[in-house]
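Support request, priority: normal
Reporter: lab tech (M.K.)
Component: structure prediction queue

Hi team, I submitted a job for N-acetylmuramoyl-L-alanine amidase from Kitasatospora phosalacinea yesterday, and the status page still shows it as pending. I've pasted the exact input below so you can check whether something in the sequence is tripping the parser. The sequence length should be 621 residues. Please let me know if I need to resubmit or if it's stuck on your end.
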Amino acid sequence: MFRMPRAATAAAATALVATVLGAAPATTAAPDADPLQRRFAAAAAEFGVPEDLLLALAYQQTRWESHGGAPSTTGNYGVTGLTRVDPAAVPAGADGPQLHTLDAAAALIGRPAGELAVDPAQNLRGAAALLAHYQRESGRAVGGDPGDWYRAVARFGGNARGPFADRVFATLRTGAERTTADGRHVRLAPSPALRVDRPADTPDTAGPRGATAAADCPAGLDCDFRPAAYALTDPADPTSYGNYTEADRPADGQRIRYVVLHDTEGGYDGSLATFRNPKSQASAHYLVRSSDGHVTQLVDNRDVAWHAGNKTFNMHGIGIEHEGYAFPKDRPTWYSEQLYQSSAALVRHLAARYGIPLDREHVLGHDDVPGPVQANVAGMHWDPGTFWDWAHYLELLGAPLPGPAGPPAVGDTVVVSPAFDTNRPAVNGTSDRPENFVYLRTGPSPDAPLLNGGTRDAADWRDKAVTGARYVVAEVAGDWTAVWYDGQKAWFANPGGSAAVRDPRPGRTVLTPRPGAASIPVYGRAYPEAAAYRDHPSIPVQQVVPLSATVPAGQAYPAADPEPVRGDFYYARNIDGDAPEDRTLVVGCDTYYPIRYNHRLAYLKSTDVQGGSAAPACAGN
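Reply from support: The job had stalled in the queue. We restarted it manually and it finished. Here are the results:
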């Protein structure tokens, strides 16, 4: 996450005036169906839109969530994700009808735009009217087969390239069913035999297109390559470059082990401009646009982007920025479904390419990355924020959280897994909404103080355990569970194992301090020992300095990997790589286990722990 001026959503937009006269097929929802299901049927019938198509479109926009009328981080409203964005919030030339569909839909049905934002019935009517309007403008009749509506759906999604429309029709084929955060149960029956009239002039998202050929993206993802800055900020100083480090990962020994998710704290275009300015001294490998899920690659994955605030995680990670905000202070409260879908498709691709495990010790938020040294701990970023839906994201990755398994026992490894839609702990500065964490306390009581003197601020990660994190159970008291966290017991309400479930994966490595040690040090980065630099006289020795944290005797922490990793440091001094020993990887004999220490990951030296495998042989330095 990098900080830039916030773009506010606002009320101004250009209204589209048109008359929609649709055929009215019979409503198909059963009389005893959920009220929201009946509203879909009524809106579809009124404007001649196939009901299943409207259901699939809304599912791809919001998964049928209304979010209480609050906008997304980039200006989507209501169950169908209609848009309203202030023209002043986007760069000149970037504004267009796709950013003002809320007002266009409101004009079509003769209702105030504000009503469509908060009333699901009117939102559905407006979306159906707008979709029918697009269908007519494409030269097609309303009604009929859903497969004839491809052009209208693509236009609704704001991207003629087709990813949104392709996902809508994929949902029609597979079907969907879920209960929303406000308790509405909606079902879309599968139509596996559906045939789609995909126009021949629609660009194929299954392969390279122009600049896409340079981007490392999966087939089917709308993706391009727009390079981040690689330039000097002072022409007289060859070390004054930004915004990334040239390398040859993983061939040069820098294995890619992590994906780190960020949010931009600004719009797509402004974020792109920031990464293309070398004075920013920041970059990411990818940037995902919220409105349509478009992906832009900025840094070749062989190179080291500057995104995590921790050199170890930069060296061994791929950074993905998402258009949005970790904690919007006015209205936006949720990330778009298209952003989730594209990001997950990209991460699945990267995980397969580089052998990255699809779990929360390897697919990280910036809030999971530790401060490299103690002085950096307090200032570490905490995006993508407490309302990033990790449970949904893991499902999209094909690695869902484990199911309920009853109350845990002491010594079990558990995965934090509160039900996102119904998990609504109070957070300062925002109204009631789903959150991705549980509060941690000093004792088994709701009246016990929050851990570490923590607060209810979203940015205060000291007292929070986030979805997907794994810990070892230290104690159980009734409906309360304590885990080893930050060198102490951390308590949270866990009735019946509803907030944290046993990790069902066999053979997981759990680490404890070596025998005889009262405590062992914790590290924020995995650097090599001083002796590793002996053959590299031009490379400054990087000090191996622990954090102030420790693991006391008797405590246990799950290892993120079954084998320890060698400490390493990539030296890159000049922009052209022409300094003595430039672009050299120093690898040590000391090995480290990454663990989930508190909210964030950390490292333990393998010589300090028991429970792991023997450190690999090292020839010495």
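The longest helix spans residues 120-137. The CA atoms of residues 207 and 213 lie 8 Å apart. Let us know if anything else looks off. Ticket resolved.
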